[in-house]
Amino acid sequence: MTSFDVDAITLDVLRRRTSAKWRFYEPDVIPAWVAEMDYPLAEPIAEALRRALADSDTGYAWPAGLSEAFAAYAGEQWGWNVAPDRVTTLPDVLTGVAQALLRLTSPGDGVVITPPVYHPFFSVVTDVVGRRVVEAPLARSADDAYVIDLEVLERAFASPGVTAFLMSNPHNPTGGVASRDELRAVADLAARHGVAVISDEIHAPLVLPGAVHVPFLTVVDDDADAVALVSASKAWNLAGLKASQLVSTGRTARTVTARIPMEVTFTTGHLGVIAAAAAYREGGPWLADVVGLLDAQRRLLADLLAAELPRARYRVPEASYLAWIDLSAYGLGDDPAAVILERGRVGLSPGATFGTQGRGFVRLNFATSPAILREIVSRIARVVQ
Question: Given 281, 309, 327, which residue is the final one in a domain?
Fold first, then answer.
C-alpha cells in the first residue's frame, strides 16, 4: 500500500504535464526515456512549496537550511557524518561536476569515465570544461553484473595527463551499486596515481532492497582530492526545481568549493532549496513507498521481458528506475530505440549515447504504473514480431 494510488496514474492524466518528458515526443508516444518519475509529488514537499508561494517567497536561494537537512539525512541513511559547512548548494549535479573539474584539473587533462555511462559525462568533460575523455569500460561479472574493472581503471589512471575520475555510483544506466571494497580499491588507485575523484551519487536515495549505498567520501581521508555530488531531484522527482549539493573533503573545501563563484551558486533555484530540504526532512515515508513500488516494477519488467521479449538481455538493477536492456538479438541495429519509436511509439534512451558499448541497447524508465509498463513492453514486443 502506497501513499498514493498507483492505478490512478494513467496516460491521460500524465499528458497534462508540460515537462520535457511529456512534451518532447508526439502525443501518441509513451515516453520512457528521461529520468522523471510519473508518481505524484510527496505531500510534505507540495505543502512546503504552497507555503512559499502563499508568502511570495520566490527570491534568491539561501542554502543554509538545505545543507543542514542533507547532513542530517546522510547521517540517518548512510551513517555519513557530513559537516553542513562542507556542503555547497548548486543548481544541478552537472554544474557541480563542471565546477569540480575546472578546479581539480587543467585544460587538456584526461578525465576517466566508465562507459556505458551517463551520456552528459562525455560532453561536460570535452565541451564544457575542455578536458579529454579517457575510457575505462565496465566489465561483466560471472552473474552478468556490470562492475568496475580495476586493472583497466589503473591503466587509465596511469595514462599520460590523467588527473581525474568521474564516477557514477549508483551507476547510470546499468543500475549497479559499488561495494565498500570496490570503492576502497578505487580510492587506493586514485591516491597512488594522484587522480582526483568526482563521485556522482544522485541516485543514492533510490538504492533498492538487497543493495547498500556507500558514500565515496566515507572511504577516503579528509585530505583526499575527492568530492561527491548529491541531490533530491531523482528520488523525489524535483529535477525542474534546480538544487543539488556538492560535498567536499577538507582538502577540496579549500581547492574547489572556496573557489566556486557566487554567480554560479546563485543560479540555484530557491523553490528547489525549499523542496529539497522538505524532502530530506519529511519525505522519508513517501520515498519508502516509492522504493517498494520500484522494487516491484523492476521485477515486473523482468517477467514481462521473459514472456514477451525472451531474447532481451536484462539484469535487474540494484538502484533507481532505469533499466538497461540489450535488444541486439532482435536485429534492430545499433539504435533499436529509433526503430521502436518509429514502429512502436515508445520513447526510449538510445544505448549508444552512453558509449559505444551501448550499441544495440536501450535505457527504459520504469517509474510508472504497472499498467503503463505493460503497455510499453507490449508495444516493443509488437515491433519485433
Answer: 281
- What does each C-alpha distance from 177 to 139, 161, 250 come to in angstroms? 14, 28, 26
Q: How far apart are CA 291 and CA 239, in angstroms?
A: 18
Residue 51 included in any domain: no
- The answer, as to whether pTM is greater than 0.90, is yes
Half-sphere exposure of residue 139, counting CA atoms within 13 Å on the CB side? Answer: 10
d(CA 174, CA 116): 8
CATH of the domain at 233: 3.40.640.10
d(CA 92, CA 245): 8
Q: What is the pLDDT of residues 354-366, one digit of tens each?
A: 999 999 999 999 9
CA atoms of 155 and 157, how far apart (whole Å): 5
pLDDT digits (tens, 9 = 90+) for 212-265: 999 999 999 999 999 999 999 999 999 999 999 999 999 999 999 999 999 999
The Cα–Cα gap between 290 and 66 comes to: 22
Among 132, 129, 88, 108, which residue's Cα sits nearest to residue 259?
Answer: 88
- Residue 69 phi, psi dihedral angles, 5° rounding: -65, -45
Residue 116's nearest CA partner among 365, 353, 364 is 353
* Residues 301 and 203 placed together within one structural domain of the fold: no
Query: In three state form, how does the secondary structure of 26-61 look?
Result: CCCCEECCCCCCCCCCCHHHHHHHHHHHHCCCCCCC
CATH number at residue 343: 3.90.1150.10
* Domain C-terminal end among 281, 312, 334: 281
Task: For residue 325, give the amino acid letter.
Answer: I
Residues 302 and 214 in one domain: no
Range of the domain at 70: 58-281
**In the block, residue with C-alpha cell 566515507:** 218
290 and 229, same domain (yes or no): no
Judgement on whether residues 204 and 307 belong to the same structural domain of the protein: no
Helix, strand, or coil (residue 10): coil
Packed helices 284-308 and 370-384: angle between N→C axes, nearest 10 degrees: 30
Count of structural domains, the chain: 2
Alpha-carbon distance of 269 to 273, in angstroms, equals: 6
CA distance linking residue 166 with residue 98, whole number of Å? 10
